Amino acid sequence: MTTLSRASLILDALAESRGRLTLSELATRTGLPRSSVHRTIQDLESELYVVRTSDRPGYTLGPGVLKFGLAGHLQLLSANRSKLVSLARETNENAELAIFNGREAVIVDQVASPERLIGVTKVGRSFSLHASCIGKALLASLPPVRAEELLPDALERFTDTTVVDRGDLLAELDVIRRVGIAVDIEEHDVGICAVATAMVGPTGALQAIAVVMPTRRFAAKGAAALWGLKDLNPSIDATAAKAHLDEKRRAGLG
């Protein structure tokens, strides 16, 4: 394994942990020998890619990674902004852009419709992967084994319609892989429904784009959201996706 590969494993582990990790914890999470972790950490620390925590033993991501994160973030936003604007205008609902943030999905951009949703979804908000359409769409874009690795052992329930049975969720991810869309029927927030699709975007990063709306408008406008997403992701199987959307709506809302 190259030095770059070891560094990537360590940085990914720190990003996913969202907190400090000791050398032993990093060795466990990455599968690397502790001696290799120690040598690589020293190199990363010298460039401020990682820093030691002051209150107790361990390391966190350092300021050296910011220059890459900020540049990549701006490229991601500029490459997708016009698509979000068009989608929001076409559907007259909120259009959102999301990416992985460790073991969660995070909203990185949003274009609000004239019928703005207040206080429901904000840029920077994170969502559990299993309880949001953006999370499920991103998971379904990964190899099944990797998707399972990102899921916690116990799936948290947010609402009455959150899918908390692991087998049911994995079966739904298989459907999402086939049809190209994920549906959220009040699974994360009561009163909110959404449809999302995931794809490799213009910057080469895996991303999800969603149309989000109040539940009261979903029955009438869910199909319009689907067609708007298909304009952005032609690989969506429209017929199968519509059937999946209708099935989820009936199961969740009756």
UniProtKB/TrEMBL annotation:
HTH iclR-type domain residues: 1-63
Pfam entry (one): IclR_C
Domain IclR-ED: residue ranges: 64-249
Highest taxon of the lineage: Bacteria
Keyword terms of this UniProt record: DNA-binding, Transcription, Transcription regulation
PROSITE patterns to which the protein is assigned, alphabetical: HTH_ICLR, ICLR_ED
InterPro entries, A to Z: GAF-like_dom_sf, HTH_MetabolicPath_Reg, Tscrpt_reg_IclR_C, Tscrpt_reg_IclR_N, WH-like_DNA-bd_sf, WH_DNA-bd_sf
Protein name: IclR family transcriptional regulator
